[in-house]
Amino acid sequence: MSLDPDPTQDSRFAVLTPRERDVMAYVALGKPNKIIAAELGVSQRTIEAHRARIFQKMQVRNAVELARCVLSP
């Protein structure tokens, strides 16, 4: 799954790890943690930790704000 935004669009994307970008794509599409964890072969707790770091790095408070950042032109 790849929903990789152009890092030049926003410097916040550049600080994400490749795995955080993977998780961010799923979150932006509205996938629940349980599904993301199953598809990536990790625990739900790992996804929760990734989400927390992504939200912090992207300076958003929730998945809706994250989706807006990722999916807006």
Automatic annotation (TrEMBL):
Keywords annotated in UniProt: DNA-binding, Transcription, Transcription regulation
Top-level division of the source organism's lineage: Bacteria
CDD domains reported in the protein's UniProt record: LuxR_C_like (cd06170)
Domain HTH luxR-type: 9-73
PROSITE patterns with a match to the protein in the record: HTH_LUXR_1, HTH_LUXR_2
Short name of one Pfam family: GerE
Listed name of the protein: Response regulator transcription factor
UniProt source species: Candidimonas humi
